[in-house]
Write the structure tokens for this entry.
Amino acid sequence: MRVALFVTCLVDLMRPRIGFAAIELLEAAGCEVVVPEKQTCCGQPAYNSGDRASAAMLAKKTIAEFEPFDYLVAPSGSCADQIRTEYPGLLADDPEWHGRAVALASRVHELTDFLVSVAKIEKIPGAFEGSVTYHDSCAGLRSLGIKDQPRALLARMPGVELKEMTGADECCGFGGTFAVKFGDISTAIAAKKCDNVVATGADAVVAGDLGCLLNIEGKLRRMGDEKTKVLHIAEILAGDA
Amino acid sequence: MEIRSMRFKANASAKLADAGLQRNLRKAKGKFVDTRAVAIKEIDDFEGTRRAARDLRDRVLKDLDLWLERFETQATARGATVLWARDGAEICRHVVDIARRHGVKKATKSKSMLSEEAGLNQALAAAGVEPVETDLGEYILQINDNEPPSHIIAPVMHKNVEQVADLFAKTHHKPRKTDIPQLTREAREVLRSHFLTADMGISGGNFLVAETGSVALVTNEGNGRMVTTLPKVHVVITGIEKVIPTLEDLSLLMRLLPRSATGQSISNYFSVLTGVKQPDESDGPEHLYFVLVDNGRADVVGSEYHEMLRCIRCGACMNHCPVYQSIGGHAYGWVYPGPMGSILTPLYAGIENAVDLPNAATLCGQCSAVCPVLIPLPELMRKLREEQVERKLRPLAERLALKAWAWVANRPALYALGTWFAVRYLKWLAGGGDRIRVLAAAPEWTAGRDFPAPQGKTFRELYRQRQP
Ligand code: SF4
């Protein structure tokens, strides 16, 4: 099967290694991976800021680039949810584009969900020695139902010990533009998340969305925690961590 | 009630800095979240029950006028008078008129959010009627110089026992005590004389039952019973959206309301009040009035925000909201806080009077995940954001920045160039380290957090380099 990787704008800019880890995992699961080179952003920042016209423009661009492939896979529950759940409604007024959005939607997956449910990966390529705690990112968890998939994958790594934190399913306070518009509320929420992370004593906090990870890492370091690693699930699974 | 929602941001910052409040909020959070989680397990098919409740509320709201007429007919047949109020001022006018008609000097009140919407206490006082709040929380607020509530079912959630002890000692001129049962007893002694001397009782209403013309009241303190049965006049003030067709429907919603609100299987008191006192009955009011209030609700019927009218005021959305948990209810600046307030305030008090509220959310979805009537709260907040953009209520710089960014993101070559520069600029800011301490482009981020440094090159560049 031909899988098109939606890199996400944050991974492109901040952590390319997550994109390469995702490619490695998809290939390990037997997929042919294509990276459509004109891709940019799914348009979620515009959509959530109320700029529907801009969001629709970027939605059409993304659909056109990814519809030729069997699947679209993103190392982000948030972006996958935008494309899978929100695009059809966003383009509802335009019958042609609505149809194309719907046709793509069912083939859109968050990375761990795809590895477990569709590609059924057998051997996890990476190795990690130590304890990790997993933060459930909001859109992935509550909209796409991503909860067991990353944990199932981690459970298959012999060196990994999972230490669940209190409130793993609670928001980290990122919220996209919320983090820069309401910085002090966002920071206060992040502080609670980081307290819960640190309380587990885990060597690393792991999540499936880079937005949350940047928020958590930024707050951990400002709080003076230098030792907790902050990793994307793809980095652990692919062994690049 | 005066709208202070435009000062949300400054007020929220002050609440974050209030150490006492932060302690109180942390305590309250555990209580509501944990007890609800346990209570909903008692329902075999919780999801199915939620869907049934959603469908029921939608069915009523579709034909709201018909159900209200039926309610009016039934209530009138049982001796009640049904009055309609377009806004807060009309609520006050009706209630003051009723008070005058019956020569009322003192009115006891059980909780009514509509009376908060209307600022009724001030209007009553101005008309020479003494209003006495009898819900313990509301009473505490009233004696604290009419402080507004910070939660729809736990109005003094922001206070701790020490603060209440100080307030009681000051107001009641009795020795200060911090034992909660003793404090409650002291309040009860004060309130008892009011119950016995009031000429009028004012209550809210959780539901109006159309088939019987009844009002259902869900309370935990028993004050509701005193207010609605002792005085000769009882006035119910509630929103027009609270009507439901049958008692059977009431039982469906009652399976969800107390469990979602306080984690109780059933509230301590649950009253269904129908009609005026009959000759063979020993208690109840001689005169019963319903003031059914629009105050913005009718405009929401059939609008793109119509799902909001399903709300049964359980408070679960705020109890589970990371923003509410961090700042409490006062910062929201009007009657309703938390996620439901971030939608109701702009809808009822004007979108231009509460511009921050729909934006002050991470859209984490926890509110809609717990809402007993499946209101898609984040979706409604997003729609309000769209309306703000359409009506140019967002700052020009923000609107232009979004447009410019999207314009670039729609042009891959330009976008690649832009990110090429951006990533190098960020890397330079980090000065060889792994973090940026001050980011001029996002000062609110770096005020309380570091901004992690980028890896150094974009994925796009590195991927191209890898291609043979
Ligand atoms: S919006 Fe839903 S969760 Fe919030 S108070 Fe209303 S019914 Fe309860």
About this structure: DSSP finds 13 helices and eight strands in chain A. Chain A touches chain B through 64 residues (CB under 8 Å). The pocket of iron/sulfur cluster is lined by residues B 260, 311-317, 340, 371-373, 375 (CB under 6 Å).
